[in-house]
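Rather than argue in generalities, we have chosen a single entry, letters for residues, whole numbers for local backbone shapes, without further comment.
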Amino acid sequence: MYRIALCDDVAAELDRVEALLAAYGREKRNGKYVIDRYESGEALLAAVREKRECPDILFLDIFMSGKTGLEAALELRQLGIKAPIIFLTTSPEYALEAYAVDALQYIVKPIEKEKLFHAMDIAFGILQKDVEDFIVIRVAGGVRQFSPDAVIYCETQKNYQVLHLEEMDLRVRMTGGELYGILERFPQFCRCGSSFILNLQHITLVEREEINMDNGSRIYIPKNKIAEFRKTYFSYYFEA
């Protein structure tokens, strides 16, 4: 399920956009998303920082009290948020500035149904393409999307899988088999015993029964899996 963030300091405008998005979901039959409403850029930024997750699509008003939509968008980009941004505004004068933060669309109010639907079609097209190149994991409250290169290794902890990412650890409730089913289409991932899935690109040393990862972690290979792992590891680098 995708998450859409609406940010506008006028409640009536939030209501209108939310109603149009509901209509889009009904007509396009792909309305599998939840909507989060924010009445200031500060509130949106705080939510992103605190949850350590990002919306999949953003609708930002430009003229708001406090931070403008442009200022909020710039900070979101600096935080690494790459979600499509659609600006909503009463004036076209900031269109060039909007595209400086890679805005997807710039819609002048009053918002027309056709223009919003067109923007959503483009945004969902981008998201669908990203699914092919990115890992998408379902987490509490939505989905998390990230590059395969960001995953250093994954570790089974009882009923959960811990994904050790470059910037953080992500804990999700699923089996190791289910997680590997998501990762195995990327050739750099190798299952090592029943407890670990390793990103071969993040390995710095393979020595006897120990594997060193570039984040400082040490993984110990079960003795009965050493030969199989070494074959996979060297095949990846020398036979690809």
Q: What stands out?
A: The domain at 2-133 is CATH 3.40.50.2300 (Rossmann fold). The chain has two domains: 2-133, 138-238.
